[in-house]
Design brief:
Length: 293
């Protein structure tokens, strides 16, 4: 073993040294330093997990990884192996990003050609997967309703407290600050039927300063519920494309969604509520079952 410790120990320490939790990633982007650091626990855990997969692969194949430099040296070999295993472009991109972040390398350092990411190539389930079979919507109606009305991520759902509910112009909102992506707080407007909204309001009032959900069922189809929420927000705010005179206010899709167009203003509202900084993520990752408004 290296005097620096095991390779997994080195990976952990190196990634932790890059963490800037609580700092603004958007500000770092402006001054050109964001690429050096990690701004959320989710990203840290994802990179740690992916790099540990590489360590296991190396052990199985008798490849010695003694230090961080060895990971950089064998990066292409591992990425090529992943590519041959027919892993999705999204997984490959994440694994390359993990190596680059760890080793302070640009994406262009690696020669492995990763396929272009498209909505149709996403392999994670948007509906039912094996894990979801262990979750019953009938037995957990409160969590399902709350997710569909707020679009919160699992981490955000596990941290939200009832006192985060407030009203503006008689509309209910949540002030979301804990365990958000990139540490960015946001205001989330609740969308749903009157009965669903009232249920969410009651859950928050009952919780008070405590968590709305003491135990969040992580096997739930949370991304699917975020998609449901996105559709509610988008179609509640979207104008008919034919009625938008300024073409700059319309997003025309390409690739596998060619021929579909969206109202940019509605996408922006949707993006802000979901906690994303780019409107194209909404159209590709959340409105995947819908035609244009």
């Amino acid at each position: 073993m290296s005097r620096k410790g095991s390779i997994t120990y080195q990976i952990k320490n190196e990634l932790l040294s890059k963490c800037r939790f609580g700092e603004s990633r958007n500000e770092a982007k402006k001054n050109g330093t964001a690429y050096k650091y990690i701004y959320s626990y989710g990203t840290l855990n994802t990179y740690m997990k992916q790099l540990n997969y590489m360590v296991k692969w190396a052990r199985i194949n008798n490849i010695k990884l003694k230090n961080i430099e060895d990971i950089a040296a064998h990066g292409d070999e591992w990425l090529q192996y992943c590519l041959e295993q027919d892993m999705s472009a999204w997984t490959l991109t994440t694994r390359r990003a993990a190596i680059c972040k760890l080793c302070n390398l640009p994406y262009s350092h690696f020669k492995t050609k990763i396929p272009i990411r498209t909505r149709s190539s996403v392999k994670r389930s948007r509906n039912k997967s094996l894990a979801l079979k262990h979750f019953s919507e009938e037995k957990n109606p409160d969590q399902v309703i709350f997710c569909k009305c707020t679009g919160l991520r699992v981490s955000e759902l596990s941290a939200i407290t009832g006192d985060r509910l407030y009203f503006h112009n008689n509309k209910p909102y949540l002030h979301v600050t804990e365990k958000t992506k990139g540490g960015r707080s946001r205001e989330v407007e609740l969308y749903g039927s009157p009965q669903e909204i009232n249920k969410c309001i009651q859950l928050c009032k009952n919780a008070g300063k405590n968590k709305v959900f003491e135990k969040v069922k992580e096997n739930a189809n949370t991304h699917g519920y975020r998609s449901d929420y996105a559709k509610r927000v988008y179609f509640s705010n979207a104008r008919s494309i034919d009625e938008i005179n300024d073409r700059n206010e319309v997003m025309f899709c390409r690739k596998d969604k060619k021929g579909i167009a969206y109202d940019k203003n509605a996408l922006k509202i949707c993006s802000e509520n979901l906690g994303h900084s780019r409107i194209d993520i909404v159209s590709t990752s959340y409105l995947y079952d819908n035609d244009a408004a």
